[in-house]
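Incident review: delayed structure delivery

Summary: a single-chain prediction request sat in the queue longer than the usual turnaround. Root cause was a stuck worker, restarted by the on-call engineer. No data loss occurred. The affected request and its eventual output are reproduced below so the record is complete for anyone auditing the incident later.

Affected input:
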Amino acid sequence: MTLRLTVAAAALLVTSASFAAVTLTVPEEIKIVSVNDQEVSGGLFRSTEKYSLNAGENVINVRYSEFFQHSDNSHDILKSGIASIQTPKLVDGQEYRLALIHPPKNFDLAQKYKDQPIFGLYNKSNQLLVQQTGAKQEQKAIFSNGIFGNSIDLTKKTTIPANQPAPIYTEAATIKSAKGQSEQVLSVASNSMANSGADQQLIQIWQKANKAERQKFMSWLAEQAN
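Output delivered after worker restart:
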């Protein structure tokens, strides 16, 4: 009985490990709209945010959004359409970050950039795992004439454009995913071997025991069940 409980507990630990999380850091220029079809609410004033995602593959819907303050005290908020990022298999306990690829350095460049931004997913070693370019947009900015002026949002469409370019996965993504899978397989295999070894040892002890020893063991086992 004790052995069976130990085996069950080990199996539970292995199962629980599959739900471990990874950490994703996102800069202020990137807004996460949803993760795996679940809407995400971000902070109003923020520089960076950290999100906890399930290990494995995730679908992250994002958009480029940047605030520009002009010399005459007016401002513009530029927003892109939504891009959908299909991540490679993320490894338990690891840290990742999203970033803009070739981010604009000024307002004029940003006006063009928002029409088709490029997002990158990086691992902790700063290796690019996947690059996703947004679909070509014809949307305008959110315009206002003062710090707290009225704005008109022309980018409220939340569906993913069908003409979004295919993602580009790097070799690092393939290697990391394969390594993570191998480590998980080895972990499960090690636990299985340990449990199998314990079962085999118990069988051998039983086979070598005499009748009196077997009766004592059965009596002890019955007491444990009670």
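Verification: The helical segments are 2-17, 107-113, 171-208, 211-225.
Action items: add queue-age alerting; document worker restart procedure.
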